[in-house]
Design goal:
Strand order of the largest sheet: 1-2-3-4
Largest sheet: 4 strands, antiparallel
Distance between the termini: 74 Å
Helix content: 25-40%
Structural class: alpha+beta
Radius of gyration: 23 Å
Number of helices: 3
Order of helices and strands: HEEEEHH
Length: 114
Amino acid sequence: MPAPSPQTLWSLLVLGSLFVAALVIWARNRLDILPRKKSASMRVVESLPLGPRERAVLIEIQGRRLLLGVTAQSVCRLQELDQAERASPEDPSAAAPEGSQTSFADALARAGGS
């Protein structure tokens, strides 16, 4: 069997590199295994799966907390949480008056009922 030509080797190298790059991009988008740049103005506080491709997501953006419904086809705002609903154990700076803390599940239940 004759040795492959240099042109064939370069073609295989380019194709292999493109395949690896496509695989890394797919893995980053689909599996979230590579770290992404963090946004200073927006963060996901909590996420709750509701079905195979549906979830409720609590985000904080520019000091406001929004409860979003996310499906494969759309994203919609379910509710904006007020100050009393914002308090969470992980965020002591947003502490609400005693006895007024609301859990993510309670906020989700209220959003579904209104």
